[in-house]
Specification:
The protein has 143 residues and is α+β, with helices and mostly antiparallel strands. The protein has three helices and five strands; from the N terminus they run αβββββαα. The chain has one domain.
């Protein structure tokens, strides 16, 4: 009969948690990608200009853009911040054809982050499974 130490069981539980987190990140990404693709089918590309970057707390900023659709101007919060963004910079937004106040920014910037987290979680899980607790080394040495 094989003996499985409490430390090894704990390792499997930790690995399971990190695998679940990694899968959740991937599922969230796929869901947001599907929702984004549906939105884009009913959207028009519009040039927008960053008109204000307002600091909130610490490293967080509110970024405001202005864009025009069919002669009507809109000033909206972008909901995204990157250190490379500057006032006066132009961006392409995808504006809903039926409700011009709704828009989406190309989510490709977030894709890299999602997969980085997923690989990080899977990496930790694999590392956790590969490492043997010290008491297992002692048990193997006795054989």
């Amino acid at each position: 009969m094989s003996y499985v130490s409490h430390k090894r069981i704990l390792q499997f539980l930790i690995a399971f948690v990190f695998i679940a987190l990694g899968l959740q990140v991937i599922i969230d990404y796929i869901g947001s990608k599907i929702e984004y693709d549906r939105f884009i089918k009913n959207a028009i590309p519009v040039q927008a200009k960053i008109v204000d970057i307002d600091p909130r707390l610490s490293e967080s900023y509110d970024v405001y853009v202005m864009y025009e659709v069919k002669g009507e101007s809109y000033k909206k919060e972008l909901g995204y911040y990157d250190k490379a963004l500057r006032v006066g910079q132009e961006l392409t937004l995808f504006v809903d054809k039926s409700d011009h106040s709704k828009f989406k920014l190309d989510p490709s910037k977030a894709e890299k982050g999602s997969f980085t987290f997923a690989f990080l979680f899977f990496g930790i899980a694999i590392f956790t499974l590969v490492i043997k607790p010290k008491d297992e080394y002692r048990n193997e040495d006795l054989l």
